[in-house]
């Protein structure tokens, strides 16, 4: 197993294909995995659900995980009742009601509201008499476990589901040819199980977000008079939060289409409500902080790019963004181009990171040359104020920004 660099973490999400009767993959169930070699989930609680959502939508990107297919996501009671808000829309998503959820009036009301918002519902490991039959009028899918489920009343359960023409049945736990034959005999529309495909664990390297910054952001978002400038300051001052906001803005579930050129634009595009929802999930999905040294180095680079931008006629905000993305790419062991490819960047920032083009590309070349000690190249390319003073300003600014996160 690879080990993450200091200040980074390995994040994982499992996915298991769901097939139609012709053998085509039509959907993936997303699963919690605590490590890249985990065989099963190990836990199916609110923490697990939050990790799956955060990792899928803000670390990998939903397009990378499922492409244009549907994803099934297990939900606990807190999400079904609205205590924790889903930070994505209903397109290409099916919400699975776990069999461990006690179906009472509050759950029924919550599921009814979700269906009213356009979400599709699946009843996981469906057992007649568990109370989940109350949700059949709201369901689009019912999952029947042919491996560990009680099959003695399968005829009656299938007949009850078929009373609702809008329901498709997913046969899960398929591990033998007999299970497939049973699925064919009953005409189950969808199939899932080891005999068809085992779950795959996807792993990526991620910068560990600052726990304190998350809490500070959540507090600012929860204030009665939300201060946009404070929110922007909190996000821009934490590289990991910046990356997650950018990735969230690129999520198909959020519906963003405009290319991003600044943190401000990303926040405005997502809206305070979406940022608040992601922050709540990040608090649930709590991990260790990035190191202070890495934070300061990343912010120094970003601030230096911002300060140098004026000499090349580049946007200061865009230069800050490009510098920060380059620093984070270095932390994750990625190239600038690989990092840029994951984010919804405006053409000038993307071109600068991927090919070194445009005024921002000139900014990055000067900063890169200074960092590697090539003062001749700096002198040849940069005609602005004394760069040493500019560097000292960037270092002071980043030191104060990092200290602010520790107070």
Topology of helices and strands:
Layout: E1 8-20, E2 25-31, H1 46-60, H2 62-66, E3 70-75, H3 77-80, E4 93-97, H4 105-116, E5 120-123, E6 141-145, H5 154-162, E7 168-172, H6 177-186, E8 190-191, E9 200-207, H7 211-222, H8 228-236, H9 239-249, H10 263-284, H11 292-308, H12 316-331, H13 336-341, H14 347-355, H15 358-371, H16 375-381, H17 387-406
Parallel strand pairs: 2-3, 3-4, 4-5, 5-6, 6-7, 7-8
Antiparallel strand pairs: 1-2, 1-8, 1-9
Helix pairs in contact: 1-9, 1-10, 7-8, 7-10, 8-10, 9-10, 11-12, 11-15, 11-17, 12-14, 14-15, 15-16
InterPro entries: dGMP_Pdiesterase_EAL/HD-GYP (IPR014408), EAL_dom (IPR001633), EAL_sf (IPR035919), HDOD (IPR013976), RNase_Y/CdgJ (IPR052340)
Protein name: Diguanylate phosphodiesterase
Pfam families: HDOD
Portion in helices: 40-55%
Domains (count):
3
Number of strands: 9
| C-alpha geometry | elongated
What is the CATH top level name of the largest domain? Alpha Beta
Number of helices: 17
Q: How would you name the CATH homologous superfamily of the largest domain?
A: EAL domain
Q: Assembly type of the shown chains?
A: single chain
Taking all residues together, what is the mean pLDDT? 81
Helix vs. strand class? alpha/beta
Biggest sheet character:
8 strands, mixed, barrel
CATH topology of the largest domain: TIM Barrel
- From the N-terminal CA to the C-terminal CA, the straight-line distance is 36 Å
Radius of gyration: 24 Å
Residue stretches low in confidence (pLDDT < 50, at least 5 long) are 38-42, 284-289
Strand/helix succession: EEHHEHEHEEHEHEEHHHHHHHHHHH
In the CATH hierarchy, the architecture of the largest domain is Alpha-Beta Barrel
Task: Tell me the strand percentage band.
Answer: 5-15%
Lateral arrangement of strands in the main beta sheet: 1-2-3-4-5-6-7-8
